[in-house]
Hints:
Low-confidence stretches: 104-111
Structural class: alpha/beta
Helix content: 25-40%
Strand content: 5-15%
Number of helices: 13
Largest sheet: 7 strands, parallel
Number of domains: 2
Strand order of the largest sheet: 6-5-4-7-8-9-12
Order of helices and strands: EHEEHHHHEHEEHEHEEEHEHHHEH
Radius of gyration: 21 Å
Shape: globular
Distance between the termini: 62 Å
Mean pLDDT: 85
Oligomer: single chain
Amino acid sequence: MKKKTKLYFLSPNYRSFGNAAEEIYFAILKATRDGCKVVLLIPNFFFLNKQIKSNKELYLLDHPLLVNKNTCLNVSLSLVWFFYAVLLYIRSLFLDKITQIFPANNKVFYTNSVPAIGKLGLWKSKYDLFLDTKELSKFWIQNYSNFSPPCISEHKLLYAENKKSELFGKKDAWFVSLHVPSSLVESNIRQADIKNYIKAIEYITSKGGYVVRLGDSTMPKLPKLRHVIDYAHFENQSEIMNLYFLSKSIFLLGASSGPTAVAKLLGNKVIAANRTHFIQDPFVDLSIQKHVFRKIDNSKLSLKEVNDIGADTQFFENRDSEVFFLKENNPEEILNLVKEALQFDIKKPTDLQISFNKYLRRSALNMFMKEDFPRHYDGIRKEDMADYKVRAFVESPLCYRNNYIADFFIKENM
């Protein structure tokens, strides 16, 4: 008698490109270790399509452990999901009106306005965060090493290859995908100035490569540069092309933003400048951070000071600090990052990178073992805090080991 396959139901965050990719990534890990398949609840808002911020093609990637095609099961469950999502959306509109009259924490309302079916189970295991710390670390290191990425289906890949050839004017050109979170209509801590990337872009094109800049029309335009495609400002962007560029470039040059999770989900190498924290980011292979300064005297902290101080120097989301501020990486730093990335072999880090990673794991352990961590996540409900701490731990350097700070950056800032 044929054994029935266990199913795990997941509704990835339709409001976020990066969060949706992150949740699918961890769902594949869960399916691999638990011997089950993941049923993705595909968003279809009909009259609320503008609410879908994630790329719909993420839900249609090929993988033997994903059940994501238009079967009767998917269609019927997605219809139920649709009504549930609409109810939450209407509820969030009502709460938004209430907060205009009675000020409250809008992040809590946003958190509860997005369906999260199956989300908390992605990071759970039999180990306790505080009692079984070493075992939990080993467990997740093994999990990460077992990851097999999903892929774009063959007919869509052929379409994307042909489109790339049209854009580049040649079939066999290599390229780097670029995403710099920058907007003319909003401001947050992740943002960076695209002008600081021009030197690095020109270096890549001088070596015969192309650069495809990803994003949207709210971003400032790039100047006209040889072998540079400013895809962010294409009128009719293709969702499949965005995934293609993230998966088939020699690496993504990103930052603290969603496309890093998408590129890693698709099995690509990720390089990042202007990261805003060291802790909780398993999707970046090689990176440099924004510099942390003290407000009281404008003095710059060394990398060691940033890590020794702990959570206060880790700038998550939109949190401001009364004590510290950030400065972006300059053009020379981003250029040096790209030069190092083009030569970097993740299996052969330098001795300095290995020793800094050991130090970073010790710093992460000290941070996570503090009872008041995290102190700056007002948007998390108290009842969800224990699960959030486990997730943060799972995505910390204690649970992954093949992500490094650029060697030149450690030398200059340690």
